[in-house]
Amino acid sequence: MTDYGHDLLFGSFITPAAGQAEAVVALSRIAEREGLDLVTYQDHPYQAGFLDTWTLMSYVAAATETIRISANVINLPLRPPVVLARSAASLDLLSGGRVELGLGAGAFWDAIAAVGGPRRTPAESVEALDEAITIIREVWDDSKRGGVRVDGKHYRVAGAKRGPAPAHDIGIWLGAYKPRMLRLVGRAADGWLPSLYGLKGGLAELDADNKIIDEAAEEAGRAPGEVRRLLNIGPDHTEPEELARFALEHGISTFILAADDSAAIQRFGSEIAPAVREMVRRGRSGTRTEKAEAPSEPAPRPVVQPTPKTRASKRWDEEARPVAPPAPAGFRYAPHGREIGQHLIDVHGMLRDELQRIHDVIAQVKSGALSVAGARSALNETALRQNNWELSAFCATYCTRITQHHGLEDAQIFPHLRRSDPDLVPVIDRLQEEHVVIHEVIEGVDRALVDLVRTDGDFTALQKAMDELSDALLSHLSYEEEQLVEPLARFGFYPGQV
Q1: Nearest residue to 83 via CA among 67, 69, 110, 101
Q2: What 3-state DSSP class applies to 168?
Q3: Burial level of 244, CB count in 10 A (0-12/13-18/19+)?
Q4: Is the dihedral of CA 126, 128, 132, 135 positive or negative?
Q5: Closest CA to 490 of 299, 323, 347
Q6: Which domains does the chain have, with CATH numbers?
Q7: What is the DSSP secondary-structure string of 229-287?
């Protein structure tokens, strides 16, 4: 029943799946955008289906700006300590002090041995980890003279040069369960990083393990509070009240969510973490409550507003369109979520602007004015035909953009929203039906463009097709914004954006 008083940290634990490399990086970016402090990855170098963890960490460090990065945990038997120390320090320097070092003694010994690593007994693995921690800290300490010398049973370092020193004091967090490993945590580590599902005895085991760490720390002349207590949790253990109890009564100060779902990560960062921080703050100040109270600032609604409808379409019954369910009361929208909603409106704004440009170009060509590129000073019979072809190319490019936009929605965004909220399915079905209709109208514009050259300047068919496209598209864009801006802001989206 101990609160060690550490500041609270919240992180994500993402599977480094090689077959979904872009999604892994996108989830890492989402973790940063949603305000999480840490992103972590498991390390199994013998697993061909996984990205190499250190390479992934380096890539993510370059693709992010603020979030800390760690393995969860490094497979020590396949990462020599001197090289590991220099890798960690180098990435810490390059990332501006954002690297932490989760370390594990090793497991899956058959797989480790199959790729050339050592096979160790449980006792040997603890010995090797103990020696490795000493070596790593000695390599980082470039204030001492002389090389690093450790004559261990498993690692022998005979005069290795020191450095580089990391940009900040990198935390060494050990994934550990058994008493001997726990005593090593208390004696030599900066943090203890178990998984909740690995604690078979539940909270009783958590408290007993904390006690072992505390006693080992005191025997080593350290305060128990020098050891941060971290915990990997699953999506079924994210209630703020439960996590606040873990912090206030069981000493946990870092919660790392194991989930590869963008909505779960978004909610963990934007809703759960702030609620837990508030409850723990109140608990530590003596005003603890069982339920998280409302935040001091009002929960923001999406800061973007759908574009008002400017035209109706005769292609469909607008009154029969389904309506999305209302947003949950008091939902807190993360900045990244609001950005996604705004991005949908921005893309639609581009489509609206270019639609108007097409109408303007048609008017210019009809009046014999400048070409689409604005580079012609006058028109004659030959130039008129050239203008028609320029107009055709311009319209074709625009129609391609609409098709690509709808294709991305149909293939990626809509399935994501279907999974996130089944009540959105009728709306999404209707939007996809309207996509088909709009594509039919675009084909009519294409046919009118071809006929324009053949009919020698008769714009009647083209004007009719363009009016029909305007009615259908502007009506559709407004309906889509009205129904999807809020769900997109709430559920997020990856790997692409609208």
Answers
A1: 101
A2: coil
A3: buried
A4: positive
A5: 299
A6: 9-284 (3.20.20.30), 328-491 (1.20.120)
A7: EEEEE-GGG--HHHHHHHHHHH---EEEEE---HHHHHHIIIIIHHHHHHHHHHHHTT-
Q: If you search the block for the tokens 């779960």, which residue do you land on?
A: 264
Of 390, 392, 395, 384, nearest in space to 456 by CA: 384
pLDDT tens-place string over residues 456-485: 667 788 788 888 888 988 999 899 888 988
Backbone torsions φ then ψ of 254, nearest 5 degrees: -135, 125
DSSP assigned state of 256: E
Q: Are 462 and 358 in contact (CB under 8 A)?
A: no
The H or E element containing residue 264 is helix 262-267
Could you write out the DSSP letters of every residue in 296-333? SSPPPPPS--PPPP----SSS-GGG---PPPPPTTPPP
14 and 260 in contact (C-beta within 8 Å)? yes
What integer pLDDT is reported at residue 348 of this predicted model? 80
Q: Which two three-digit tokens encode residue 9? A: 């940290």
- The residue among 301, 357, 365, 311 whose CA lies nearest residue 333 is 301
Pairing of strands 254-258, 9-13: parallel
Strand stretches in 123-183, DSSP E: 148-151, 156-160, 172-174
323 vs 411, 417, 426, 427, CA distance in Å?
A: 21, 14, 8, 6
Q: Take residue 311 and report the two structure tokens written for it.
A: 């035209």
For the entire predicted model, the pTM comes to 0.62
Which phi-psi region, left, alpha or beta, contains residue 141 (left: φ > 0; alpha: ψ -120 to 50)? beta
The CA radius of gyration of the chain, in Å to the nearest whole number, is: 30
Q: How far apart are the first and last CA of the chain?
A: 48
Give tens-digit pLDDT for 367-426.
766 433 332 222 222 222 233 434 444 455 555 555 665 655 556 677 878 888 889 999
Tell me the backbone φ, ψ of residue 380, rounded to 5 degrees: -130, -170
Query: Nearest to residue 212, comparing CAs of 187, 183, 240, 175?
Result: 183
User: For the chain, give me the number of helices (H) and strands (E)?
Assistant: 15, 11
- Scan for tokens 């960690």, then name that residue: 88
The 3 state secondary structure assigned to 429-459 is HHHHHHHHHHHHHHHHHHHHHHHHHHCCCCC
Q: Write out the H or E segment, with its range, that includes residue 255.
A: strand 254-258
Q: How many residues does the chain have?
A: 498
**Tokens 């393995």 belong to which residue?**
71
- Count CB-CB contacts under 10 A for residue 35: 18
